[in-house]
Design goal:
The chain has 360 residues and is α+β, with helices and mostly antiparallel strands. Helix content is 63%, strand content 13%. It has two domains: 154 residues, no CATH class; 195 residues, Histidine kinase-like ATPase, C-terminal domain (Heat Shock Protein 90). The strands form two sheets. Strands 2-4-5-7-6 form a five-stranded mixed beta sheet, covered by helices on one side. Strands 1-3 form a two-stranded antiparallel ribbon. The two termini are 38 Å apart. GO terms for molecular function: phosphorelay sensor kinase activity.
């Protein structure tokens, strides 16, 4: 069974009000401007007005629902023009026939000119021109309505297609990020097995908890910000297990409210870059990570040194994948609601990331 949506209800009300205004202008205002003493307007006049409104309504909706879609919108412009001209002729003679049927000319002549004899066959040219003008207005408005409806349908289809494309692209980007993350993390744990088996076991436990987050939360468009922050903590703790005393970490992570949501795994690629490029086994290094939550706004910042030896490794060359995909995800999920700046500090061998996201 067909359902009536609010949009359909609004459309129906608009049409109803439009025709009511036409009836008021056509049926009431003209008679009210006449000054004929106590003489009553002939009943034939009201019959004619009702017939005229009815034929205008039929013209309007037949044009909207049939003639414009079947001819004009399919490029058959000349055929449509002939139909409109033919409709004008049919419209005119239908009114003439109806007037003769109810003896409208005689009754109106007797009403306006009771002292003059009636001459059959004579037409009021101004009245005929006004009626043809009403026909033209009806056709013009209905054509405009049909074209606007076509444009709205095309726009709705375009937006739906764009939404589907965005969802498909986001799924593809997330699918790229996940293997990239696991590849890097498993490499870290593999390296750790050569140094400390117990730490490697602890790392596997943390990784399994992170995998559950990725497998379940990453399938949804959004997750709780508190879960994303917990995921970040787990990742940092996992990374700490392979760090030496030469690496100084400065971590500041705010607690998130339970009702705040964010797209999952947006921040991970920036963290990965910190630990890939900001660590050296020979030199002192410093990594700064800060996540601040103020109302519905999330501020994320990282700073780390850049070691050239890391930039030459195959893993480093692949690190751009996650960052590029994250930029694309941000542009799709938070258009005009995020600011992202990253790069090398001028005059310093230091890399920075500044990300602001409005979650409202």
């Amino acid at each position: 069974m067909a359902t009536i949506t609010p949009k359909k209800n609004i459309s129906f009300v608009v049409h109803l009000l439009g025709w009511m205004m036409l009836c008021i202008l056509l049926v009431l205002l003209s008679p009210l401007s006449w000054r004929m003493g106590e003489a009553e307007i002939p009943i034939e006049f009201w019959y004619k007005q009702v017939f005229l409104v009815g034929i205008l309504v039929a013209t309007f909706y037949n044009n909207v629902t049939f003639f414009v879609p079947k001819f004009l919108l399919k490029g058959k412009n000349y055929i449509y023009l002939l139909i409109v001209l033919g409709g004008a002729i049919v419209f005119y003679f239908a009114i003439v026939y109806f007037e003769q049927l109810i003896q409208y000319p005689r009754r109106m002549h007797e009403f306006f000119n009771p002292d003059r004899p009636f001459k059959p066959g004579r037409r009021w040219i101004q009245g005929d021109a006004f009626q043809i003008l009403l026909y033209i207005v009806s056709v013009g408005l209905s054509t405009s309505v049909a074209l606007v409806q076509k444009w709205q349908r095309d726009e709705a289809n375009r937006q739906e297609l764009e939404k589907q494309n965005i969802n498909t692209e986001l799924s593809y980007l997330k699918a790229q990020i996940n293997p990239h993350f696991f590849f890097n993390t498993l490499n870290n744990i593999y390296s750790l097995t050569n140094l400390d088996i117990k730490k490697a076991q602890e790392a596997l436990l943390k990784l399994s908890r992170m995998m559950r987050y990725v497998l379940y939360e990453n399938q949804h468009e959004s997750t709780l910000l508190s879960k994303e922050v917990d995921f970040i903590r787990d990742y940092i703790e996992l990374m700490k297990m392979r760090l030496t005393d030469k690496v100084k970490l400065e971590i500041h992570l705010d607690e998130a409210k339970d009702n705040q949501v964010i797209a999952p795994m947006l921040i991970l690629p920036f963290l990965e870059n910190c630990f890939k490029h900001g660590i050296s086994s020979q030199k002192e290094s410093h990594i700064y990570i800060k996540l601040e939550i103020m109302g519905d706004t999330v501020f994320f910042e990282t700073r780390n040194q850049i070691f050239p030896v890391n930039l030459d490794s195959p893993e480093a060359r692949e690190s751009g994948i996650g960052l590029t995909n994250t930029q694309r995800r941000l542009s799709l999920l938070y258009p005009k609601k995020h600011k992202l700046k990253f790069g090398k500090e001028e005059g310093k061998e230091e890399y920075y990331v500044n990300l602001t996201i409005n979650l409202s």
